[in-house]
Amino acid sequence: MKTGTVNLPLHYGRAPRWLFDRMVKLSHEITRMIIYEYGTNEFLHRIADPYWFQAFSCVLGFDWHSSGTTTTTCGALKMAIDPQETGIAVAGGKGRASRKTPDEIRAISESGLFSLSEAETDELIYSSRMSAKVDNTCVQDGYQLYHHCFIFTEKGDWAVVQQGMNDEDRYARRYHWLSSGLERFVCEPHLGICCDHVGGEVLDMTAEVSEETRKTSLDLVKDNPDHLMRYFRSDASQMTLFDFDVLPNPSPTTPPPLSLTMPAHHPVLDCDLGKQGWKVLRNAYELQPESYEELLSLAGMGPQKVRALALVSDLIYGTEPSWQDPATYSFAHGGKDGYPYPVDRDTYDQTIEVLRDAIEGAEIGEKERYRAIRRLGEFV
After folding, report:
1. How confident is the model at residue 357 (pLDDT cuts 50, 70, 90)?
2. Which of 90, 105, 87 is nearest to 32 (CA)?
3. Distance between CA 361 and CA 38 in Å, rounded?
4. Nearest 5°: phi and psi at 355?
5. How far apart (Å, rounded) are the C-alpha atoms in residues 15 and 227?
6. What pLDDT score does 359 carry?
7. Which of 105, 88, 102 has its CA nearest to residue 44?
8. pLDDT tens string 152-165
9. Residue 249 has what pLDDT?
10. Pick from 303, 7, 313, 285: which is nearest to 133 by CA?
11. Phi and psi, residue 94, nearest 5°
């Protein structure tokens, strides 16, 4: 399941080497203690919790109210976690490293450290790709993914921490995924989403209210997408019948007046999908996908095609998708800035207790232990 989203100010700097080295050491000890006390699945649950992840980053000592929280903390975890020791592996990263995720998953699987079958490995790679595609394509919130971290166990369970950026408002948004409880990638895959900056109109094709739009989008493709061409302009000067609302004819001899009206969310009708876009839709028609998830998984099925199908579905069948930003809570200030707590009080207290116990049991110097506990106190 998708467990949440966090928005953070976009920063372009790097953590100093001395700080990063210290973060690696501390994250190794905290991770080791959590896995020892609670097991690998509990560690995945914690990483997939946006609030816990934020608290964890704070404990490590990084500037937790910035986009660097995600990339630096995940980078430290990747260096700190030894698959042979913990039964957990970390793949992916920022920029080019994110594109190496499938190869890294397969390399770890084939190394003999994890007893994963080829089918299980392929499923992990599929999960990595689909979690990224959903957040880049189905949730059109204006944030382009540039960081993808895939954390998985020797039993095939996994969590994803990934981040997108929006250069216009200088914010980054973090997305958390967890395999436990996940039924479909494309329907309400999250438990809660949080952010500091909520955008305006966001096409959310994962929302429950978008279910009918998902169905009709699939039907439009399976029923030969060539008939959809008439709903799109091929150039800016072209007009379509959907630009006009024909009013009642005042008399048999008088032509009906035409009033120019734009249907809700009409801009997609003003764009041309291009030859490549129509090729992708025709290819989907030839393949006849059985589900919306299968349609989304096809190569080339990006945001523009998903949006076009959603809007034409709305125009023809009246199946309006969700236009609400799914981000609801703020995690960046621990719930102290007027936003509701993202978790109930018992869960909140347990989150802090797990971290505090891990710090107390970590094999680190007393000075470093004191600093970590103090940073945790500052966060909560």
Report:
1. confident
2. 87
3. 13
4. -65, -45
5. 53
6. 82
7. 88
8. 999 999 999 999 98
9. 47
10. 303
11. -100, 140
Comparing C-alpha atoms, which of 144, 137, 149, 135 is closest to residue 189? Answer: 135
For residue 63, give the amino acid letter.
D
Q: How far is CA 341 from CA 253, 257, 331, 337, 346, in A?
A: 66, 55, 8, 10, 11
Q: How many residues does the chain have?
A: 380
pLDDT band at 365; cut points 50, 70, 90: confident
HEC per residue, the chain: CEEEEEEEECCCCCCCHHHHHHHHHHHHHHHHHHHHHHCHHHHHHHHCCHHHHHHHHHHHCCCCCCCHHHHHHHHHHHHHCCHHHHCEEEEEEECHHHHCHHHHHHHHHHCCCCCCCHHHHHHHHHHHHHHHHHHHHHEECCCEEEEEEEEEECCCCEEEEEEEEECCCCEEEEEEEECCCCCCCCCCCECCCECCCCCCCCEECCCHHHHHHHHHHHHHHHCCHHHHHHHCCCCCCCCCHHHEEECCCCCCCCCCCEEECCCCCHHHHHCCCHHHHHHHHHHHHHHCCCCHHHHHHCCCCCHHHHHHHHHHHHHHHCCCCECCCCCCECCCCCCCCCCCCCCCHHHHHHHHHHHHHHHHHCCCCHHHHHHHHHHHHHHC
CB-based contacts of 142: which residues, under 8 Å, 6+ apart? 166, 168, 169, 199, 202
pLDDT level of residue 273 (50, 70, 90 thresholds): confident
Q: How far apart are CA 59 and CA 375, in angstroms?
A: 5
Please answer whether residues 91 and 150 qualify as being in contact, where contact means their C-beta atoms are separated by less than 8 angstroms: yes
Flag whether pLDDT at 68 surpasses 90: no
CA of 273: how far to CAs of 1, 225, 234, 292, in Å?
Answer: 32, 12, 8, 20
Residue 262 has pLDDT above 80, yes or no: no
**What count of other Cβ atoms lies within 10 Å of the Cβ of residue 114?**
22
Cβ density class 326-353: b for 16+ within 10 Å, e for less: bbbbbbbebbeeebeebbeeeebeebbe
Query: What pLDDT, on a 0 to 100 scale, did the predictor assign at position 271?
Result: 60
Tell me the mean pLDDT in the region 217-242.
74
Q: Return d(Cα 162, Cα 175) in angstroms, integer.
A: 5
